[in-house]
Amino acid sequence: MQKNQLAIGFFSLILLAGIASCTPVKEYQKNRLNDSEMSLSNRKVEKNELNFQSYREASSGANGGKTGGGCGCN
Amino acid sequence: MKKICLTVVGLYCLLLHAFSQVSRKDSVAKDSSGYHSRKLKLEEVNLVSSYYTQNGDHSAIRGGIGSEHVTDLANGLELKFIGYDALGRKNTLAAGLGIDQHTAASQAWISKTGASRRTDGTRIYPSLDWTRENEKKGSSISAGLYYSNEFNYHSIGVNAGITKKVGSNGELGLKLSTYQDRVTMILPSEFEPAGAYSIGNNGDLKHPNYGSSPRQTYTAAFSYSQIINTRLQASFLVDLVEQHGYLGLPFHRVYFTDGTDSIEKLPSQRFKVPIGLRLNYFLGDNIILRGYYRFYIDNWGVRSHTASLEVPVKITPFFSISPFYRYYVQTAANYFAPYGQHLQTDGYYTSNYALASFSSSYFGAGIRLAPPKGIISKLRTLELRYGHYTQTTDLVSDVISLNLGFK
């Protein structure tokens, strides 16, 4: 249980530090952020990789992908 | 297999034809700044193909021993239509169709003697997603439908979501989804009544009526993304996942210490909480760092950590090479034990190595080509990616994927 609390504490700390250090960014300053490689979602080409990982490992989710359904895999 | 390859080639030709005629009227109507409504128009087509192959020696069908050799050829097509209504809201409709063709050596062992010659299968999965984006209000709503069908599994999915821009360059999101599935109850041959199974001429297992069991998944996915400065942005993701119903697979065997066997038995409820953090940083002018970390816990006793780093290097503004590495480690589920180690008195039992304690490494590289004037004709982007995966259970796999984007 202590490890879980540690993980949640770590996430909270990162989140708070991130929000606190935010600087205002104007639209014209977003040329780097708008680069396709900077996208915060998975690429389409990664879709099948995420599928096989969720079948071969016990964990899934928190990556914008599926969390259930769709496979009666061997 | 030939049919699927021909289908993919046919789809490619169809796409080139579909994009080959663009009327001048449509080109003019592209400007939506004056809030002129515009009907949905095909804007983007993506064709994703992957080939996956794996080898291992812990097949769940044989209770944790035997070949896990699998091959899978997956082809997916996505059509994206975009339009604007009279209020200037952007409507996006994405229609997808996926077809997977797989072979699995362990499938032969549904029959006790390994006599089933049918070791392949096909999965078909269409999907439909709609999003309405209000740029003035900084909000969007979405809804989606999903269906998947293969011989032993049927799945129907529905989802709805909302996003809202908050504060300075932040965005909150919530997506609710459910999957209503049915697992076909294909039992190992020794657990079927005498005479229920027979092997057909084509190697198929013949059975009068398998029957099925339900499985339901309910997910609430929360997200918060934030631009931190001109080079750094992050997203924080939390999913709450509740599953009910038949959560094992009926053809997975378990062998007990006394040499007898049974079908895996797992609880009919599972609650999962994955928490993820993604950080993307633009380093200098040519290098991007894409970092991801996930902590996962569920009430079956599985706890895992996932960490990955991808480093796209821009050789030119339109061509990049992206090496990546992912490390994963998990604890075993409370109900897992290897071949021949479960006791008859155990309440729940499985020898499926996806629920074992292990760590894995996944590494590889991808290339992305997206010149502003396109590559050939309407082909605008090309992505090719290869990865090699190893588990400490000795499972090894390779996957190569290709994405062709047309505009």
**How would a textbook summarize the main sheet of chain B?**
16 strands, antiparallel, barrel
What percentage of residues of chain A falls in helices of 4 or more residues? Answer: 25-40%
DSSP summary, beta strand count of chain A? 0
Let me know the number of strands of chain B: 21
- CA radius of gyration of chain B is 24 Å
Q: Overall mean pLDDT score of chain B?
A: 89
Reported for the largest beta sheet of chain A, the result is: none
End-to-end Cα distance of chain A, whole Å, is 33 Å
Q: Please, how many helices of chain B?
A: 2
User: What is the oligomeric state here?
Assistant: heterodimer
Give the class of chain B from helix and strand content and strand pairing. Answer: mainly beta
Give the DSSP E fraction of chain B (strand runs of 2 or more residues): over 45%
Radius of gyration of chain A: 17 Å
Q: Give the spatial strand order of the biggest sheet of chain B.
A: 1-2-3-4-5-6-7-10-11-14-15-16-18-19-20-21
Q: What best-fitting shape of chain A do the alpha-carbon axes yield?
A: flat
- The chain-level structural class of chain A is mainly alpha
The portion of residues assigned to helices of chain B is under 10%
Number of helices of chain A: 2
* Strand percentage of chain A: under 5%
- Determine the N-to-C terminus distance of chain B: 28 Å
The helix/strand order of chain B is HHEEEEEEEEEEEEEEEEEEEEE
